[in-house]
Amino acid sequence: MTVDQHDLQGNVLCGYGFPLAKFEFVRLGEAAAGRRLLAQLRPALTDATSWGSSPPPFAINLSLGWQGLRALEVPDAVLERFPEELRAGMAGRADVLGDAGEAAPGRWQEELRPGRIELVVALSGRDEPGLEQAVAALRAAVDRAGPGVVLDHEEPAAVIAVPGESLAREHFGFADGFAQPAIDDPRAGPYNKPGQGTPAGERNWKPIAPGEFVLGYRDEDGVVPGRELGALGRDATFTVFRKLHQDVAGFRAFLDEHAGDRGPEWLASRLMGRWRDGTPVEASPDAPHAEWASEPRGARLNDFRYAGDPDGHRCPLGAHVRRANPRDALGWGGTLTRRHRIIRRGMPYGRPLPEGADDDRADRGLMFVCHQASIARQFEVIQGLWLADGDALGLGDDTDPIVAGPRPAPAPAKFTIEGREPRFVGPLRRFVTMRGGEYLFTPGLAAVQALADGGGPW
Amino acid sequence: METIGRWTAITVITPIPGWWDALLRANFRRLERRRRRGCRSRIMSDLERLSFISFAHWSPVRLPSGRYLVFQSNFNGAAKQYVEAFARIVTWGMRGLWWGAIDVPGPLPVAPFEAYIMDQRLPVDHYYCAYPEASTKMVLAALELRERHAELERRLPALDDAAFAAAVRAFMADNHRVI
Amino acid sequence: MARELCVLTSVLPDRREALAATLAGLPEGEASPLARVPGTHFARWVVAPSLRRQSDLGPGTACLVFAVEFDHRNATEYLEDVRRRLPDEADGVWRHCAGYPGAARLVTWLLAHRVQPGFSIVAFPAATVAEVREGLALRARLAAFALAAQRTPTEGLREAWREHVGPE
Lengths: 458, 179, 168
Known about the structure:
The complex is a heterotrimer of chains A (458), B (179) and C (168). Chain A has 458 residues and is an alpha+beta fold. Chain A folds into two domains: 20-242 and 442-453, no CATH class; 245-436, no CATH class. Chain A has helices spanning 31-41, 66-71, 76-79, 84-92, 94-97, 128-145, 248-258, 263-272, 290-294, 320-324, 379-387, 445-453; strands at residues 20-27, 58-64, 119-125, 150-158, 198-200, 204-206, 237-246, 343-344, 347-349, 365-372, 415-417, 423-425, 432-442. The two termini of chain A are 23 Å apart. The longest helix of chain B is centred in the C-terminal third of the chain and has 20 residues, at 136-155. By secondary structure, chain B is an alpha+beta fold. Chain B has a four-stranded antiparallel sheet with strand order 1-2-4-3, covered by helices on one side. Chain B folds into two domains: 3-120, no CATH class; 136-174. Chain B is elongated and about 70 Å long. Chain C is α+β, with helices and mostly antiparallel strands. Chain C contains six helices and four strands. In chain C, 40% of the residues are buried. Chains in contact: A-B, A-C, B-C. The interface between B and C is large, with 73 and 67 residues.
């Protein structure tokens, strides 16, 4: 059964590919005003149907935090059926996620602090004028909704394009956005390329059941998630939003300091598990492959496995991409990883720091967004067990060298580059700091209408 | 509190019918005889490969109120992932233990089995561990290192600086996976 | 050699809450009374609120589970250690159970309620608590040395080894 494109919100199964975005944080005030806003927004929301060859100037989508669902006065009996992690909120799961020290909820940016995020409206723009139209449309809807509804805060984001290259980059300089799960649905993005599904047999890959990402459809275990949410559980997904600050100058300085005789680019590739252009280190440990990276949407950048490299001599065991998607690295084919995939729809924010420039202390990083049917099983396993810890991979207290800060441990935090002449890199520092975010519910369009109407059926 | 440092305690007591009690006891005796002879059963190999358990025990018990299977385990990581790994990797092992038990769903699909274990696990009233901040994998690595380090330390005093450096560097390289 | 011991005793009908309160009042972590018994890898006290057959309608019997993995000795010797090293706590917990004979005969009574082991998985059967702790401490020192040593020239390595690794 294919996913209902007219009910699912857009940018979940198939990315828009737009270069600009703004995340608008709206306070709903009291229930009636909040519902009026949803009613205003509903006709403007973008669904998952194909645009063919003519994309619209902008797209609008929305997600609700637990506080938003409560502000809309969704009945308690319905609220209780939502997953525990949504109720706890991202701040309530800080222990699980390793959001400690500078990343602890008490240190988050004021506007994104715990419990504050109610409604997130994601505006995507084909270009600047398109994005401005989206902003104007939202502002008009907020005005019409009446008193109490407030546009609290805005976070802009933009793709970092590199002239002459087909893949966008993130602020540390790595190509990003091209590694996504292959999903068993015709509208699921251009991702059905080798390496993006679950390993099947020696050489093949199997796309992943849509229910791993969209409620109301069968998941990898043949179960349909979201049934307990009734009408709200159809064509919906759960979304993680995290504003991740990136210390670009610090990262570059670290690479220079620890480069050794192989140079900073080689070191960067070991930490990430990919060369800057996206070439996977597992497939090509000695150098990037420019021709792979130049293929449209990086089609050949994901066709590799780890089981032939159990000791990490090609790609280090603790490299970021090996942690974030272990493929068959945990043994038994992809059995223990196939239910822990996420769809990432994030976008960089802030002005890039030119190469060689001094630290300008500007706020830059990644607006991290991911979608999944279960935050606890998917995002939290990756972030909590594989990135913010190393034990699942046999690496003890050693955390992800790029995106996680060191965890409290008796030994200094290190990154081991395995091999016949291994290297120990460290002590590691924190380069990515969580500045605030929330766990969100992204309803189908009919459910948005039901929430706007307020009376159910639920 | 059922968690201390990296360890979680699970205790589940399941009523079992008399015939399953008899079968389990016979099977356990057979497995013990094989273990004494040095044979390793598949369930043991799979569970050990998963290596997030330090100790796990399944014991049949007869009480005045009936017969039960007592399961207890100390493991690392999240309880749900632990149960999932058991159910997916050691499926036949789980059936061999719980199939005849009363009202226990089979290990696959995972969700009902996971729900059963999560629901039936008993809250721990007091939990102690002698090495809370270390996981099974970390302990195994540490034990291996300890042995190899002892061998190295016996050789080091007799070596000059250059030989010392070579020996220590070789040691670090050979053991980098467990450091 | 790590051994296991599991003891199941019935809780007196009106003592469940008192038992729970006693256990809740025990200090945790390194201050746990069970830390005083050398060679204790893991230990737990669990109150199973009501064990009964599915077919029974009665309230069921609450049971106290005491489960431990320990070094070196047999169960009798271990329990003797428990009796000697945490006499007040042991009495404070088990006095809530049916048939508790008092501190002097604690060990015999506990052994009589022992659950015979069935099937076990043990990840590190030969290691004692002391060996595990030594190994972990050594591993941390070696990790510190690993980072320090990479830039240390040959002639300085002996000093760096002594500084970070030992001998203890």
